[in-house]
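Narrative summary of target 7.
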Amino acid sequence: MKILVVNCGSSSIKYRVFEADDGLKPIAWGIIERIGEEVSYFRYRSIKGELSYSAVIRDHEQGFEKILEVLMDEDKGVIRSVDEIRGVGHRVVHGGEEIWEPTIIDERVEEVIEKYSALAPLHNPSNLKGIRISRKFFPKAVHIAVFDTAFHRTLPEEAYLYPIPYEYYEKYRIRRYGFHGISHRYVAYMASRIIGEPLEDLRMITCHLGAGASITAIKGGKSVETSMGLTPLEGLMMATRSGDIDPSIIYFLMMWEKLSIDEVYDILNNRSGLLGVSGVGKDLREIRRASEEGNRRASLAIKMFVHRVKKYIGAYAAIMGGLDALVFTAGIGERAPWIRSMILKGLEFLGILIDEERNEHPEKYGWMISSDESRVRVLVIPTNEELAIAEEVLKRVAQHHL
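Modeled conformation, tokenized:
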């Protein structure tokens, strides 16, 4: 049996195929980028070979055609028929309070995903598009939606409610939902295995630092606080998102700049964060180069990013009454030892002592970057959302065929 995991973005499709006969073994990986642009990029790798090329891929449906074509390729493919794909897992960002668990997709599930598209406009519409196309391409497979919000269903009321009139929660379900839950749950589980202690016995903070960034406090194996809120806009400073700001800024920008609410929303989601402060770009590597060349705004953007991550770490340690483990993951968290070093500097009062050699080469030291004397274990763990989704799909496919 084979399982396909799909993560559909506005101009991209990431996918991975797992052999599921004896555990879950990845057998093919790929991504299509810049769908609908002048030139699209296709990359594919499998246990049988690799393929990459540039082409014009006009839309997601054509993208799925290309994926199926290579998956069934005589030389490099891993399936002979679409019917070999028994389960398809879809990462979906927002399900509101209506769907928390991984769920077999039907018309109602599609309606819920569409309903919450306004709260995740960068993700839910693309997720839904991928679901509808792949259900057409793999009609005999069981399609499962795995929600990014699911891990945060354990947030207590005092953490998920906002201090606005309670009637707005009752009417519109305005509350903190949290995101990146698939990643936070996976790396927390892996960290407990590396440490050798049950997740239920640990107070842990997981830092998912990428273009989108969030931090979660995990106590007793459950999410008890998280930085993203009603939408993925709240929380940390990100690549293009502002994160936390004074809400009055929206009012004054509209008044002073004569902007519409949609224009301000676009600014906060797409023109703020690292990009907005640095003026250089949204990639931290590019911003670092500019900083080293003396660009003051680039240096400021880095300092602001570090400051806000530290602030959340300190707050979440206070909420949990202490800290046993701290985990870094995602693009920046995994591959930028210099930013990890900046974040951890000054946190010795929490019992955090970093070993800089381990920090530079975490894979050589079992992913542990704290010193032996550190009271808090600090780890770098590569996230694997595709594997986490595949595990959920495997469970539901087995239940479906009982």
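The first strand starts at residue 2 and ends at 8.
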